[in-house]
Design goal:
It contains 20 helices and no strands. By secondary structure, it is an all-alpha fold. Residues 87-111 have low confidence and may be disordered.
Amino acid sequence: MNQHDIHRTVETVFLMERTRLIAGLARTTGSLDLAEELAQEALAAALVHWPKTGVPANPAGWLMLSAKRRAIDLHRRRVTARRAQAEIGLARSHDEEALHEAFLDGLDDDIGDDRLALIFTAAHPVLPPDQRAALTLRLIGGLTTAEIARAYLTGEPTIAQRITRAKKRLADPAIAYEVPQGKERPPRLSSVLEVIYLIFNEGYSATSGPEAVRAPLCHEALRLGRILAALMPEEAEVASLLALMEIQASRLGARTAADGRSIPLPRQNRALWDRLLIRRGLEGIERARALGGGTGPYCLQAELAACHARAARFETTDWARIAALYGDLLALQPSPVVALNRAVAVGMAQGPAAGLQLLEDRSLASTLSTFAPYHAARGDCLERLDRHAEARTAFTLAASLSGNDAERRFLEDRARLCG
């Protein structure tokens, strides 16, 4: 393996292990900034050593061990600095010994899942919800500020500012940086659920990069959702979110063609849908209902996904029910993206003219003017109304606004085929 290949391997392994490194180090050091710094130092060490010694048999373990050694060295330097203030020749105090041992033990303390623990920790009540979500999506989801900004329909500087402020607030010594236990968890749950679902969404419909789907993000969100469901089995919205993700994930194998292009829902081969995941998702919806969560936002979204899962063919989809569910969700959680999805569903249930009328609402059009899916939805309605030139313009604009290569190619194809 040449040096270029080794460097690429280092970067790939680090990208995959970055969140686990940061989660474990943040838990033991109590500092997100320090955890990120230690992780970067481990990457730098790998870039120096691996080209000389070769890629280790367990590259992820090597990175973690390197980061831990740097954490231990830093802790020892701090202990030494404190000791230097005492009289020369005094032995280390009992308290210092205990502190050092506790630190070492903490590096390997298994609390169940470091990533989920860090999501709960970062969802601290002292942070506003928007800062909690931005910080955790960056650290745990590994999403870029641009990807987070697109998820929230806002600018990158705004997201960067939220992350910086959140880190600064959590660095305050007066704030206990620790994993919440018992009754401390429910107040943070809504933020935790939001982060897990946004990680899943970025995997299911990637907003940037060459691929339409980032399956590893979906699988990571599912893993976190399953751990959370076992941790909080009486929470209806936890069961609902897991059900929603399982039903959505059932379609991953049918969403892209061999050349990487997106396959829209009407053209997907439903034989490729994972029936086990669908069954588990439907069972999860029933479990959420039994827990009294039939009207929660994630339960409504799970019901929406179930409408597609139950339809044997696209033509038999119950669009009237989907439109009604989106109406309920819009009343519960007003959002321009929910309004967009409702308009699409109305367009399918009542015809493209009805959908287009909702899409061309002045407020919605203004809010979503730079949102590629909005213009794609307009293009679809216009094409079905045989207004081909306008549809071509809408699809072309949607393609120009998309940050995802596969989605852009798909939209450009739609524009070329108009008329």
